[in-house]
Amino acid sequence: MTEKVFTKEEWLGTLETLKESYKLFGPVKDGDFHTFMPLDGNKKPDFDYENTRLSPKSVIYPESERMFEYSLDESEEDAHILKESPKDYSPCAVLGIRPCDAQAFQIVKRNFDNPEYQDPWWTQHFEATTLVGLGCNAPCATCFCTQVGGGPFHEAGLDVLLFDLGDRFLAKGITEKGDALLEKTAGNPADDAALAAAEALKQPARDKITATVPTDQLKDKVTNELFDAPFWEEVAFACLNCGTCTYLCPTCWCFDIQDEVQGNQGDRIRNWDSCMFPLFSLHGSGHNPRADKFQRVRQRFMHKLKYYVDKYQNGVQCSGCGRCVRYCPVNIDIRNVCKLMNDFA
Amino acid sequence: MGNPYLPYPVRIDRIVTETEDKNLKTFRFVFLNPEDEEKFAYTPGQFGELSIAGKGEIPIGIASSPTEKGFVAFTVNKVGLVTTHLHNMKEGDIMGLRGPLGNWYPWDEMEGKHVVIVGGGFAFTTLRSSIIYMLDPENRSKFADISVVYGARSPGMLLYKDELAEWEQRDDINMHITVDGTDDPDWKYNVGFVPTITEQKITSADNAIAIVCGPPIMIKFTQPVLEKLGFSPERIILSLEMRMKCGIGICGRCNIGDQYVCKDGPVFPLAQLKTMPGEY
Q1: Within this chain, do residues A46 and A101 fall inside the same structural domain, yes or no?
Q2: HSE (CB half, 13 Å, CA atoms) of B51?
Q3: Contact state of A81 with B9 under an 8 Å Cβ cutoff
Q4: Considering its fold, how many domains does chain A have in total?
Q5: Residue span of the structural domain in which B132 resides
Q6: pLDDT tens track of chain B, all 280 residues?
Q7: Given A82, A111, A308, which is nearest B53 (Cβ)?
Q8: What's the CA dihedral at B51, B53, B55, B57 to 10 degrees?
Q9: Is B220 on the interface with A (CB under 8 A)?
């Protein structure tokens, strides 16, 4: 396991070297928020941030992605026959990803890479990506990663973990992929002072997360009893069905498939979709099993906090990033809903 | 493993208009690459995604039987963008087919038992597949009595009329064809709703499994009839419909509770459905 220290200047400098081997993504200040962007051209990463508004899920799972292409030109022999769209699976690295967002990739991996079907695009993008995490010295008020199996310096799901030591970064290789990346960087072997300083960051950060979000009873609940619980109309009362929560969520994976044609050339494209929208489940006949707003809100929470729990026996479908809490325009708080569900008798 | 989203190229081999309102057509597809037909090895009850470049995909139950070689058939109701376009296509046109998808009727469990098939309207497609499959000389001896209650709004709305007439003549299948109503004086079969005819014609649930496929209203009123006859919820098998995209349990929209209708269904025993949210 590689452990290196860098001054912050050295770290930014060594990224230039890394660009020779990886396409880099990092947090870039963009107006009032930070956003994960490709670090090409003059884009400079800024590692002094709480978390990005959008999760970095789009690096591995683009918001819109070409699946297939085809020609509708009847004079061509392969007209109407779909062919895979060319893809770039050259190595890339996400720098500064928070441990919650890395854990989120592990959560959605169970969907995209399951024993029966492997999503070819998600799995190949994931395989090509090295996740260089940045531990959270100062978690936000909306963070609750510690309540859902993670933590501000949680390593699982990351390939490298960076500790911000003030004037220096300590980089710890976690996987072979991570060590391979660190081999290509400058920096010095970690000294004892740096290792001790990194260790000392952990507990104070954990202590800053004060939310209590119990999930221990969810798996023992009877699905239909939770489904018929009396609180769903109330939970959904103020909801606008705007879809912000699903859009920002690093563990929301639902997608739509659409065909787009220009002239004689067409693409089959998949786009992020949202269970908040009535069209999501509208049948051709006009019947809609989730026609009412509260049914869609219930679907979102039941999926994350019950169906996923039952299906994979591996915890909830939430990494505690808190984005949906922070950006919900009507203050619907998954932590409260989780408590309602967990306590429901 | 190949890309599960990539359709096999197929050619429309034959189109038959099934119903008097011309809204239901049966499409026979032939695979452009013969080896794809083997990869598309299916079991009655499964479905496929019909794929039209430039329009999209739709999940449709397979109406042909694996005992019928050289083609795969689907009966399609004209409803939306893709199905309307499909209805306007012609024999010889090239499109795509993805699958087979989903689970199937419990054929192992049905062996040695009486099979009661209850179908209504255009949901009869995978039931047609099942009947052809069971009547195949290789398979017929695996099942005891086969009884079929099949209803449509009017005689002109029945699917597969030639085959229905042929099955009526056979002595190894008990057909109970019915229509909601008709003014045809020569109509020689039943008149009445499917649940009523089921109650009249099916007399025993002993050693029997019921497969039910039809519009929600028919299912709703047939269920109590079957339960009264003595069918336990484990032996009432339903096939569901749901809006779908990927067909392989990944895109997330067709769930009922933690089950995806596309991958874990579309076939569910009533006993299982009773443990799932009633959100379908």
Answers
A1: yes
A2: 28
A3: yes
A4: 2
A5: 107-239
A6: 589 999 999 999 999 999 999 999 999 999 999 999 999 999 999 999 999 999 999 999 999 999 999 999 999 999 999 999 999 999 999 999 999 999 999 999 999 999 999 999 888 999 999 999 999 999 999 999 999 999 999 999 999 999 999 999 999 999 999 999 999 999 999 999 999 999 999 999 999 999 999 888 898 899 999 999 999 999 999 999 999 999 999 999 999 999 999 999 999 999 999 999 999 8
A7: A82
A8: 20
A9: no
Choose the closest CB to B56 out of A258, A287, A289: A258
Q: Using CA atoms, how far apart are residues A191 and A170, in angstroms rounded to an integer?
A: 9
Domain end among B82, B101, B120: B101
- What's B66's domain CATH number? 2.40.30.10
CB contact under 8 A, B242 and A281: yes
CA A322/CA A187 separation, integer angstroms: 33
Joined together, the tokens standing for residue A8 give 């912050």
pTM of the model: 0.94
Q: Which among B251, B256, B262 is the top mutation candidate for probing chain A, defined by the most A β-carbons within 10 Å of its own β-carbon?
A: B251
State how far residue A59 is from chain B, nearest Cα, in angstroms: 18
Residues of chain B with C-beta less than 8 angstroms from the C-beta of A268: 53, 56
Task: Name the closest residue on chain A to residue B277, using Cα atoms.
Answer: A224
In angstroms, the CA A303 to CA A305 distance is 6
Has residue A16 been placed in a domain? Answer: yes
Whether residues B245 and A117 touch (CB distance < 8 A) is answered with no
A214: nearest Cα among A341, A306, A318, A331:
A341
Q: Which domain holds residue A135?
A: 3-208
